[in-house]
Amino acid sequence: MYGLCDSFGCSKNTNIRLKLPAVCFIWQIAMIILFGIFVRYNEESDTHWIEHKKTKRNLSDIENDFYYRYPSFQDVHVMIFVGFGFLMTFLKRYSFGAVGFNFLIAAFGIQWALLMQGWFHSFGTGKILIAVENLINADFCVGSCLIAYGAVLGKVSPVQLLVMTLCGVTLFAIDEFIILNVIHAKDAGGSMSIHTFGACYGLAISWVLYRPDLNQSKRLLGSVYHSDVFAMIGTLFLWLFWPSFNSAICSHGDGQHRAAINTYLALASTVLTSVAISSLSKDKGKLDMVHIQNSTLAGGVAVGTAAEFMLMPYGALIVGFCCGIISTLGYVYVTPFLEKNLKIQDTCGINNLHCMPGIIGGIVGAISAAGATEYVYGSEGLAAMFPMVPRLQGGHQAAGLCVAIVFGIGGGIAVGTVLKLPIWGDPADDNCFDDEVYWEVSSEILAADLCAWKMLENKCNRLRQQTCSKYYLYYLIP
Amino acid sequence: MYGLCDSFGCSKNTNIRLKLPAVCFIWQIAMIILFGIFVRYNEESDTHWIEHKKTKRNLSDIENDFYYRYPSFQDVHVMIFVGFGFLMTFLKRYSFGAVGFNFLIAAFGIQWALLMQGWFHSFGTGKILIAVENLINADFCVGSCLIAYGAVLGKVSPVQLLVMTLCGVTLFAIDEFIILNVIHAKDAGGSMSIHTFGACYGLAISWVLYRPDLNQSKRLLGSVYHSDVFAMIGTLFLWLFWPSFNSAICSHGDGQHRAAINTYLALASTVLTSVAISSLSKDKGKLDMVHIQNSTLAGGVAVGTAAEFMLMPYGALIVGFCCGIISTLGYVYVTPFLEKNLKIQDTCGINNLHCMPGIIGGIVGAISAAGATEYVYGSEGLAAMFPMVPRLQGGHQAAGLCVAIVFGIGGGIAVGTVLKLPIWGDPADDNCFDDEVYWEVSSEILAADLCAWKMLENKCNRLRQQTCSKYYLYYLIP
Amino acid sequence: MYGLCDSFGCSKNTNIRLKLPAVCFIWQIAMIILFGIFVRYNEESDTHWIEHKKTKRNLSDIENDFYYRYPSFQDVHVMIFVGFGFLMTFLKRYSFGAVGFNFLIAAFGIQWALLMQGWFHSFGTGKILIAVENLINADFCVGSCLIAYGAVLGKVSPVQLLVMTLCGVTLFAIDEFIILNVIHAKDAGGSMSIHTFGACYGLAISWVLYRPDLNQSKRLLGSVYHSDVFAMIGTLFLWLFWPSFNSAICSHGDGQHRAAINTYLALASTVLTSVAISSLSKDKGKLDMVHIQNSTLAGGVAVGTAAEFMLMPYGALIVGFCCGIISTLGYVYVTPFLEKNLKIQDTCGINNLHCMPGIIGGIVGAISAAGATEYVYGSEGLAAMFPMVPRLQGGHQAAGLCVAIVFGIGGGIAVGTVLKLPIWGDPADDNCFDDEVYWEVSSEILAADLCAWKMLENKCNRLRQQTCSKYYLYYLIP
């Protein structure tokens, strides 16, 4: 079929027939070699478990950590692939790219994450010993890159995305190691290391890759009825499983239990305030799907760091309450501001869903750590939660937040500069947000197109015609 | 774009720009205050768990109830938000309202439910101590309100829905307390307390809000191809996780295990009989998506109360067998009858999916309780399952069912009367089932319009027209 | 509405108004009777558990196997109903049939599977005692029939599908019993017993039912934009939960843990090679949704048998690497070859997703079993994993693979011959892949058509135009 590209006449070459396969093969082969050298099963996933469990006060098979991490892992796994993937399907003609490229970069990222995180957490022993907990951490790590993808959605090629992911995972692993193991900050739900870092990373890249003429593609920068419904699949699975996300790597027992409860409550109150602000922001009080799809999740981001602390149920509600307001206002005022004044084009509004709530999360974590008292935690509980003095811990939390921001922005600018090279096959400004650039799209368009051509043949003047068939194509095909 | 409202000229003011935000803010702030006063973590989600577990025969962290309730909780959570939400997306132009308002009222309802249920189950101690089991119960409670939403889908404003939920949750908590704690009936899967109550509540409201001229909106009272596929997402997740729903709050051990098995079997046989009746009811034996989307779930409703009893696998199959037939016949005959003769307009047919099967479930529960024998249960098992004499238990089960019906109908009439006030911004009769009333809807419609114009202008002969429109059909209809 | 059938004039009678209900009722009643005679709860789901657990070193309720199998079961359950169902919704006008018939045959199949597998695994004791593990096995068994459905998708009637499932489940149970209990091969993830058998069964049936004039329906043999997005729901849930699928029935402890890890890794590397080959195979390097939807899953199939072995992380990556390539090349070259030269019409390309990868999985299993050493497994580990000598085990694995192929092809030919009888109400060659044959489809098509006509006929005075296009809008926009 003749794609839109031909009819509009693109300035750029988006042929990735050699680049994409080359990158995929090279990197996958590299993964195989590195896994061969470094990665082994740990004592709980190795056949030597039989001997191992005897040494550990005669563990039984059902005490294998698998049974206490795997359900949370699966929830997180669904969030990464279905949640993030479908959340980004809202564009009328970029659903394939949203869910497909999300799939591609996540599948690559988790492999590289297992290595990077493994190297950092398994010094000394030459081998990286993996179990289900490592898989959760790998999913978390990739999450930060998928957040970044949200900022550049529709404006980059899959090759750029793979480079972005390779660098993003690397930066994440260093960043996380510094925050958790050097600074000894706590960040169970990754408000700082995942959301703040990922969002800053993505926004910085988007800033470097600024496209002054992007409005040439604005016919495609919007949703159709069913693409919005698809996006709700992503929203709901993210919302539902967020309690698992924030509790997945907490230490077993009350901490994990509490993290799930706090997240559940924070998310619930976010929904009400998001709806309220969305309705206030529109004429006649109509709701905007963009706000419902995104801002309702902000509470989960913001409660991440403090989820395992004694935030108290009402504390969680307050965090959610504020984030729903801030995030929705972000979509109404901040996103246009960023584009107009700071030249940051943020397709999915990750600033409102991940950056601002992530920073709030870091601050909430610092405050609630600094304010921790023996009265609330109990002497043993306090000691178990905070190895160092609470007030000191608060300072370290704040330091962790700064590290995440610095790594995100710095890394993003560096990577963005690389991605600016004209070798990656990214789309032209009049050709963004369009699946036809990188996907074989089924031929309903051709049909519509043909119809449009038929019309052209008759008397109407070219200009109106052109516009018509254009609208026709883009709007009619849901 | 010009909305329908403008073109049809609605008589009613559906502007909720002040009402909706006001209600959301007031109620969310109230939640925060009440949670601040009453809600705390229980011993398993509190940092004092460290001391607590020592007192309890030296529990280990992995014996925290979190690990034995949380997977079931997540399944139930998916049912409430994805299951109920998407099941109602079948209408051609009300998918946003279905999944979006479901999201809103569920998120508000779970908070209020934690308080209401907490107050009833934590007399004496001033505080409500929450853990994952409370979250499950809150989800259950909200479930009954979402069932009620099904009856009024497309005919009420979000403000009315929030009022409906506030009252529904309140009534549910009282109703449930009476059934379980006063009458001491058993209702693991909530056939009585959730489904019968919720359906009666919704139908009563719908009866009070009867719209004689609703057929003015009947152009929108139907599905399109893809809206039916979206609805199947809801159907399948409800169907799949129903075993978790019916077993989620059973006491640990064989009861929970058995409840899951019975539900799995009941649902399986429901599918076959639903398909059979659906095919019989249509010319040429074609299947009706409405039946497949809804009636296939009736078995799960009906087996709820008796799920943890020794219903026996074949007993579960029989229950499912009957409900598939009754529920499908309900869609064919009862729903039209209710609308025509009883003036009950039931958008989703909750009478067929929740009311009738729920009542059957209550009866099945009463019979199987009354018929329980020591031979089947074993002496200890019988004592553990039924504190009182089986025959007596049967009577109490029946009493519980009556309570649920009375509360549902009575409460529904009362609440419906309040919702009838002309202050809630509900849509006009010619404007129901339309997302444009409360949502910003993207503008593909206008485009289709433009195109229709073009076809008109050209003079192509019938034949070409035919061919064109044929292609048009196949390619365009997604 | 006049369906496509009428406009094209079908030669065949597709009325199943008596056949389908008859089959459903007869088989469901048969299930009830057989369950009444044979099926009971096992000691973990029976009220006698109370006595039972005392006899077993005083088990506590939370040691009931329910808590260690149920989460995996639910993941598998989602794969069977949502995963397989939505994966097949990619056709533009067969989404109802894909997800609806998948639902029907799976719901019937699991009941019959519980009986067939029960009879084989509970000789001696007259009763079949079921628990959650049996439910997992029943889901597995049905999986093989759903794979077979993929080959005949859109070309058979629901009655044929039910017959196909009845026979398929029967054959599967025998086949599985021979492989696991007679030959003592190991097949945790069912590469041989589920995928190879199921695919051979389906392909053989499709070969017998070859339709020389199928291209008369080729207007419908393709996707539209949103049907491809729906299919991605299936793809992702299959991909995500495959680790649960391959580990669900492993013995508890390290084996189950390792199976999940190996599957996770194999699937990750499959994605990259599938994308690479897909891009290479197309002009301009555009990706093909068919490859992304299917080939990305091949790694999970191929790692099934060896998942619980000490395949090593890099070994899993290598398996996935190869399968992504082979499966994608299969879609590009093998499927057309099969249709052209072997007269096998394979709608979903199950040969590429299940047959070839399944056989590879069997071979990988045989090799890795034969190569097992005490050095890698540890003496106790080796003994626990392989009762017989590794090299011998390898031979038995290979034998198991052959059995699966023979049963699949032989059974498929036999069943296909029965299905060829002209009594089953299957569609005509010009009427395949069309939901209107067996489903009530909403009337947007007629509307669009009518509207086009109206516009032509009247000389379009703006006003009437307006009204017409209004209907148009509401029906056309999905």
From TrEMBL, chains A, B, C:
Q: Report TM segments.
A: 20-39, 73-91, 98-115, 135-154, 161-180, 192-210, 222-241, 261-280, 292-311, 317-338, 359-378, 398-419
Q: What is its main location?
A: membrane
MF annotations from Gene Ontology: ammonium channel activity
GO biological process, alphabetically ordered: ammonium homeostasis
Under the cellular component aspect of Gene Ontology, which terms does the record hold? plasma membrane
Q: Where is the Ammonium transporter AmtB-like domain?
A: 61-421
Q: What membrane topology is annotated for this entry?
A: Multi-pass membrane protein
**Location within or outside the cell:** Cell membrane
Q: Which UniProt keywords apply?
A: Ammonia transport, Cell membrane, Glycoprotein, Membrane, Transmembrane, Transmembrane helix, Transport
Task: Please give the function described in this protein's UniProt entry.
Answer: Functions as an ammonia transporter. May play a role in the elimination of ammonia in the gill.
The UniProt entry's sequence similarity note says: Belongs to the ammonium transporter (TC 2.A.49) family. Rh subfamily.
Q: What is this protein called?
A: Rh family C glycoprotein
**Species this chain originates from:** Scleropages formosus (Asian bonytongue)
Q: Which gene name does the record give?
A: RHCG
